[in-house]
Design a protein that fits this description.
Layout (H helix, E strand, L loop, with lengths): L1 H19 L7 H4 L3 H11 L4 H20 L4 H10 L4 H14 L4 H11 L3 H16 L3 H59 L1
Helix pairs in contact: 1-9, 4-5, 4-9, 5-6, 6-7, 7-8, 8-9
Length: 198
């Protein structure tokens, strides 16, 4: 019985070591860093990741909406939003602003971004802005609706991810913590029974 309890303790120690990082590559202090530091580090690389991009899109569109409601043109609103944000979405629209500074038309650059971007939400935002700019429709109402729909989609995605993480959290509970608890509760009784029969 001692071997069983030692084996359970060894398995729980190995599992705890793996939780700290694959083979110790990811240290505990890296996992305990504030979310802002990790977000800044991730956005500096401007890699495309679907969930992170979905988290950036409502904020970027809100900046655009505030600037347009304040009376700025679409081009100036894009400049304001790009200068006050960072990440994948901001880098995509920064490229649009750079091309406009070199003489390109804003509507054509937005159409190109809507056709070439890897993110569905950036494509949708760029296409809506290009169509609204071409038709002369109200930008504020369009951006308000877009922010609302993007925020609702973000909430749905985060709830789905939380549900998956909750299921994953049950694995160590069932296969590590529960067996160790059973061993600690059963072992004294078995030891007592064994001593009584001897």
């Amino acid at each position: 019985m001692q071997w069983i309890s030692l084996g359970a303790i060894f398995l729980s120690a190995v599992f705890f070591y793996q939780c700290l990082g694959q083979g110790g590559k990811l240290r505990l202090d890296d996992r305990l860093k504030p979310r802002a530091l990790l977000t800044n580090k991730r956005t500096r690389t401007t890699k495309f990741q679907a969930l992170e991009t979905l988290m950036e899109v409502p904020d970027f569109a809100s900046l655009l909406w505030f600037a347009i409601c304040a009376g700025e043109s679409l081009e100036n609103s894009l400049r304001i939003a790009v200068s006050r944000s960072n990440g994948f979405v901001s880098s995509q629209f920064y490229q649009v602003i750079q091309n406009v500074d070199l003489g390109a038309l804003l509507q054509i650059e937005l159409q190109n971004l809507g056709a070439e971007s890897r993110s569905d939400h950036v494509r949708e935002l760029a296409t809506k802005l290009a169509v609204a700019l071409g038709n002369g429709t109200a930008m504020a109402d369009l951006l308000a609706d877009f922010v609302q729909s993007a925020s609702a989609e973000l909430r749905t995605s985060l709830l789905d991810k939380a549900a998956k993480n909750e299921t994953k959290m049950m694995i160590p509970l069932v296969f590590v913590i529960l067996p160790v608890t059973v061993m600690f509760s059963v072992y004294p009784s078995l030891a007592l029974i064994q001593n009584n029969f001897l």
